[in-house]
Specification:
Length: 581
């Protein structure tokens, strides 16, 4: 029986079943609800359309998107914000593949997410008999997630959901795939037995304390520091041990450098924040304490000119996964455990120890940061027309400062790179961006999840190229009447909007878009508010009105086409041809 036939026949069976019976549809919903998962992000279609309807009928919130990839991004960001696995539900084959990108991104970023997809029946797939959207989805999913499971019997739904939840959140969090052949949803069993089969997951992500000798080793390294630095990563933000992280930073007195999604763990305006002296502290520090941050490409793998003399640093690293240690550089003092437990262990061990940064190091960091901020201040206050990135971001920096509870979502090339260093974040988990993979197109999914999961106002700052990946989801924002203000930095192209066709033909350059495209009218088409602005003053007025109103709004901000640069600050990753033009 193919999936197309199965959906209709199973719906009829479910609706006519006696009250003493239950089916896969309702058991799946009950299994999620018993584990306090009350929101599903999805795109309806065969064979999961009715699953979404039944979920709504049982009080769950089902947010339907226009594309599965964005539903998946939303689920992954929900996982980051809540520490519970976000659930994305898709149809089979192409829908599953669309969701797969988001699940892989969740796994790379260490965010808990469960991708649930309908699929063809095994007996047809295994013999390659050509079923509707036939695909061995389980095999395809396995390389891109922490775990992958397939349900074959209705009585296993409870344990399958429990395994998926525990796999997603335990240890290093990540994506989990759950494959459900269409027929399983319509399988019927005794309602009382079905209720007994449900599993409430107990302590799915237990705290993990570091070994005492590892803590002692870390303290010895810290005691020898002359120019110490703490680097906070998004793993520290995810852990939600905010008070312990703050106490650790302030008790050591060390300067701290937050990675982009760790911004706000301590306010960016905190006196120990070294963001404005980033180059200096990475280069000149002698002991670096990594707190929930990986030494990957975002930190130049801990090597090269950015880090100063080779071998000139000693690292203390806090990570839940022992395999992360020594991944790029030697770790002098690995602390394996969750961020909160490790921070508490260090704080306890610091009692009576002489751990404090030399005054001259703190003074040097503070002086450099103040000088860099003063240098930047005038650029943020210019009134150029058309606007450059600095003037526009200066306006948004003020908007967030005035409304610190606003959640910032950010993606693009120059739009992302410059916003990271310009817009201050004041509260934990109030900044979401492209993360470890640098994936473009996460913006609208992330904005929707932030609004749904927190109920707070969201400001999504998008490059026009990044917005192109996900822009249709503004309809989803309007449909659910979400408090999301989208600001598109429109410079008419990718990196820059003034590129030329190297071949001299009539086609536009590969990086150029339609000039002055009216993205604001997309939002208006779906009932939201739109604005086209060309000056910092116009942008300031439009953003203030949008954030104060809470209405779905898109502000199309004209940026000088010549203002950007290739690939933000990672142009070195773009290979150069050795063949002369």
């Amino acid at each position: 029986m193919g999936i197309a036939e199965t959906s209709e026949s199973l719906k009829a069976r479910a609706e006519t079943a006696p009250e003493t019976l239950t089916d896969g549809f309702h058991l799946l919903i009950d299994a999620l609800k018993v584990n306090d998962i009350t929101t599903i992000y999805n795109v309806p279609g065969i064979p999961i359309t009715d699953l979404g309807r039944y979920a709504q009928a049982q009080g769950m919130r089902v947010i339907s998107f226009r594309h599965e990839q964005h539903a998946g991004y939303a689920a992954s960001v929900a996982g980051f914000l809540t520490k519970k696995p976000g659930v994305c539900m898709t149809v089979s084959a192409p829908g599953f593949l669309n969701g797969l990108t988001a699940m892989a991104n969740a796994t790379t970023n260490c965010w808990p997410m469960i991708l649930i997809s309908g699929s063809s029946e095994r007996e047809i797939v295994d013999l390659a008999q050509g079923d509707y959207e036939e695909m061995d989805q389980l095999a395809i999913a396995r390389p891109f997630c922490k775990a992958a499971y397939r349900l074959n019997h209705v009585e296993d739904i409870g344990i399958a959901i429990a395994r998926a939840i525990r796999s997603a959140v335990s240890g290093r969090p990540g994506g989990v795939y759950l494959d459900i052949p269409g027929a399983v949803l319509g399988q019927i069993m005794d309602a009382q037995e079905g209720s007994k089969s449900l599993v409430k997951v107990i302590d799915p992500a237990p705290r993990q304390s570091p070994a005492s000798d590892a803590v002692a080793r870390a303290i010895e390294v810290m005691k020898g520091a002359e120019r110490p630095l703490i680097v906070l990563g998004k793993g520290a933000a995810y852990d939600q041990s905010d008070d312990l992280v703050r106490e650790l930073v302030e008790k050591t007195g060390y300067p701290f450098l937050p990675m982009s999604m760790a911004k706000g763990l301590l306010p960016d305006v905190h006196p120990q924040c070294a963001s404005a002296a980033r180059s200096m502290v990475l280069r000149d520090s002698d002991v670096v304490i990594m707190v929930g941050a990986r030494i990957n490409w975002l930190l130049s793998h801990g090597k090269g000119k950015q880090w100063g003399e080779p071998g000139g640093k000693r690292f203390v690293q806090i990570d839940i996964d022992a395999e992360e240690m020594d991944s790029n550089v030697e770790i002098a003092a690995p602390l394996v455990g969750d961020v909160g437990s490790c921070a508490k262990a260090l704080l306890d061990a610091m009692e009576g120890e002489a751990i404090a940064p030399p005054t001259d190091w703190l003074d040097a960091v503070h002086t450099k940061a103040e000088a860099n901020m003063a240098k930047m201040a005038n650029r943020l206050r210019n009134n150029n027309n058309p606007m450059d990135y600095h003037a526009a971001l200066g306006v948004l920096k003020d908007a967030i400062t005035e409304r610190p509870d606003t959640i910032l979502v950010n993606e693009g090339a120059n739009t992302l790179d410059l916003a990271r260093s310009i817009i201050n974040v004041h509260k934990p988990r109030h900044r979401v961006d492209v993360g470890t993979w640098g994936v473009m197109g996460i913006g609208m999914g992330a904005a929707i999840a932030a609004a749904i999961e927190t109920g707070k106002q969201v400001l999504a700052v998008e490059g026009d190229s990044a917005f192109g990946f996900c822009g249709m989801e503004v309809e989803t924002i309007c449909r659910y009447k979400l408090p999301v203000c989208v600001v598109v930095f429109n410079n008419n192209g990718i990196y820059r909007g003034d590129g030329e066709n190297w071949g001299g033909g009539d086609d536009p350059s590969t990086t150029v878009f339609v000039p002055d495209a009216r993205y604001d009218r997309m939002m208006e088409a779906f009932g939201g508010e739109g604005a086209w602005v060309t000056t910092p003053d116009e942008l300031r007025q439009a953003v203030a009105a949008a954030l104060d109103s809470g209405k779905p709004t898109l502000i199309n901000a004209a940026i000088d086409p010549a203002a950007g640069k290739e690939s933000g600050n990672i142009g070195n990753l773009n290979p150069q041809s050795v063949v002369a033009q």
